[in-house]
UniProtKB/TrEMBL annotation:
GO terms for molecular function: copper ion transmembrane transporter activity. Signal peptide: none annotated. Pfam families: Ctr. Its main location: membrane. It is found in: Membrane. It comes from Populus euphratica. GO terms for cellular component: plasma membrane. The gene is LOC105136362. This is Copper transport protein.
Length: 141
């Protein structure tokens, strides 16, 4: 029977029927896997943001703008854009798997994932905050 409230116990089924814990050792290994997987999620998010910055900083030469509002010039694909899209897909899949693991409603799994996301953010993404200077003071711009 699936739990519908937060519970604290060592018997948990994570993501697959074959991933069941029945001892303290297997439970702790599962918590460690959840912690590492969520920290890895933050690492991949950092890589994706850096690839996106590379793709934006080196835009391909575009032809003169077209006056028709619905026509946009074709953009060439770059390896940085492809890497960004690939990392976005992988990161989305990992995010959904982490969400499904939390939906086991086990308190230890919840804490391991939140702690892993926090530690991963501190290790890999805490330097992401950059000051953005806006020339236009209008809030709607």
């Amino acid at each position: 029977m699936m739990h519908m409230t937060l519970y604290w116990g060592i018997k948990v089924t994570l993501l697959f029927d074959s991933w069941k814990t029945d001892s303290c050792f297997s439970y702790l290994l599962s918590l460690l896997a959840c912690f590492l997987f969520s920290a890895f999620y933050q690492y991949l998010e950092d890589r994706r943001i850096r690839f996106k910055a590379i793709a934006v900083s080196n835009p391909p030469q575009q032809p003169a703008p077209v006056n028709a509002p619905l026509l946009t010039p074709k953009r060439r694909a770059s390896s940085a854009k492809f890497a960004t899209a690939l990392l976005f897909g992988i990161n989305s899949a990992i995010g959904y798997l982490l969400m499904l693991a939390i939906m086991s409603f086990n308190g230890g799994v919840f804490l391991a994932i939140v702690l892993g996301l926090t530690v991963g953010y501190v290790l890999f993404r805490s330097g992401d905050e950059e000051v953005v200077v806006v020339d236009n003071t209008c809030a709607c711009a």
